[in-house]
């Protein structure tokens, strides 16, 4: 009886929370948002803040640079190093962002924002582009001041999953610029606001992934012109108790070093781990910091290997192939139309929408070390690539821009027409 009462109380508390959340969403969209829009309409110059968590998640280069060239916008970067992570990781990501954006000579807001969306009194913005849409889960005073915009930091392949698209922020955002109509249609089925704030523009990071790279100098180690350049990008979700467990890292981490050594005269490998793999491995229940540092250093010092923990558009464009188990890379790498292998036990069990499954059909599937080696030897080195036509078809149907316009131009046009 006590157990049943506990269940009833938990369910009642959940229903109450959902009720309050929906009330806040309705209040914001009917009262606050119209006033915000009116206050920005006709402004000669719009201050646009881009919230950045870490370099790897920064996907707005083309949009930021396009806004710099338009007199209507004053874009700037707000450094908000990886909220919720350990101090050491946040300090590391902060320094990497300072180096990256300093090198690009981007406008950086002078104060680091350590608490997500908690700004100083002198913070002036009309529009904020968020890095992620998971927190906060309630109405704050900051959200009442700015028009919230968002472009997915990964090409969406889980648009029908409620946890991924039906957060509080997703439902109150002014504009969400989406990659495909399918993403909008699928999310409309599970979002409280029926995806009314989602507009079709294309995938903004795709602007970067379509660039031609004339030389790999400065991107890859110079180990020989004929070496095939392979990216290995493991996900961080090594914990089987994680709500989604994608990563195969612990099954293949030693094998990837081994094959890099065995084929050192033919390939070079860029180890491109998810930025949160390092802090996950550093936990005592996994490797601890010393073993994790030792492993990462091996890749950094490997003659035909390298450690990549920053931006990756140029890395993708200058590579010959990828091996990974990261959801956000699944469609992103198909912009390059180069051979790709997805590490997974059963491709049919991967959570994805129909476009995600179509993307996985363009991949070779790695379920064992033998299949990984066969992919490297047979497809990458020898060029026996039976999926090339399928990748080209996917690119032309879902990723190729119409009328040679950039996604950044599409977004700017929508904002200017709306304000």
Report on the structure:
It is a single chain. By secondary structure, this protein is of the alpha/beta class. 41% of the residues lie in helices and 13% in strands. Strands 2-1-3-4-5-6 form a 6-stranded parallel beta sheet. Helix 2 crosses helix 16. The relative contact order is 0.12. The model has no long low-confidence stretch (mean pLDDT 89).
What structural class is derived from the secondary structure elements? alpha/beta
Oligomer: single chain
Physical arrangement of strands within the biggest beta sheet:
2-1-3-4-5-6
The main pleated sheet reads as: 6 strands, parallel
Spell out the helices and strands N to C.
HEHEHEEHHEHEHEHEHHEHEHEHEHHH
Q: Total number of β-strand segments?
A: 12
What is the count of DSSP helices, taking H or I runs of 4+ residues? 16
The residue-averaged pLDDT reads 89
Q: In percent terms, what proportion of residues is strand?
A: 5-15%
Rg, nearest Å: 22 Å
| Shape designation | globular
Low-confidence stretches: none
Please give the share of residues in helix.
Answer: 40-55%
Distance, first to last CA? 58 Å
């Amino acid at each position: 009886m006590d157990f049943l009462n506990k269940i009833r109380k938990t369910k009642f508390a959940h229903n109450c929370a959902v009720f309050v959340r929906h009330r806040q969403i309705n209040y914001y969209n009917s009262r606050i948002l119209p006033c915000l829009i009116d206050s920005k309409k006709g402004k000669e110059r719009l201050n646009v803040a881009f919230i950045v968590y870490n370099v790897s998640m920064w996907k707005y280069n083309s949009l930021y640079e396009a806004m710099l060239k338009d007199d209507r916008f004053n874009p700037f970067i707000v450094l908000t190093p990886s909220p919720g992570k350990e101090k050491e990781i946040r300090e590391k990501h902060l320094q990497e962002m300072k180096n990256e954006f300093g090198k690009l000579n981007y406008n950086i807001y002078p104060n680091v924002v350590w608490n997500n969306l908690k700004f100083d009194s002198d913070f002036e913005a009309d529009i904020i582009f968020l890095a992620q849409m998971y927190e906060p889960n309630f109405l704050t005073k900051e959200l009442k001041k700015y028009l919230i915009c968002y472009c997915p930091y990964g090409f969406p392949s889980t648009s029908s999953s409620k946890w991924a698209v039906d957060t509080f922020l997703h439902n109150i955002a002014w504009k969400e610029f989406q990659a495909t109509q399918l993403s909008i249609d699928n999310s409309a089925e599970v979002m409280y606001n029926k995806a009314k704030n989602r507009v079709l523009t294309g995938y903004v990071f795709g602007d970067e992934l379509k660039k031609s790279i004339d030389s790999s100098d400065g991107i890859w180690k110079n180990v020989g012109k004929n070496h095939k350049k392979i990216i290995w990008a493991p996900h961080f979700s090594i914990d089987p108790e994680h709500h989604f467990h994608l990563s195969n890292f612990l099954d293949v981490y030693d094998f990837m070093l081994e094959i890099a050594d065995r084929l050192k005269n033919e390939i070079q490998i860029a180890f491109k781990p998810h930025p949160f793999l390092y802090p996950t491995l550093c936990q005592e229940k996994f490797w601890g910091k010393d073993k994790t540092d030792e492993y990462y250093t091996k890749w950094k010092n490997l003659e035909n290997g390298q450690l990549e923990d920053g931006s990756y558009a140029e890395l993708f464009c200058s590579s010959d192939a990828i091996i990974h188990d990261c959801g956000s890379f699944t469609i992103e790498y198909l912009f390059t139309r180069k051979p790709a292998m997805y590490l997974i036990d059963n491709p049919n069990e991967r959570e994805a929408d129909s476009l995600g499954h179509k993307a996985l059909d363009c991949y070779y599937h790695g379920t064992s070390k033998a299949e990984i080696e066969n992919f490297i030897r047979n497809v990458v080195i020898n060029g026996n690539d039976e999926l090339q036509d399928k990748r080209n078809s996917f690119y032309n149907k879902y990723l190729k821009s119409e009328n040679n316009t950039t996604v950044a131009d599409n977004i700017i046009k929508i904002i200017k027409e709306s304000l």
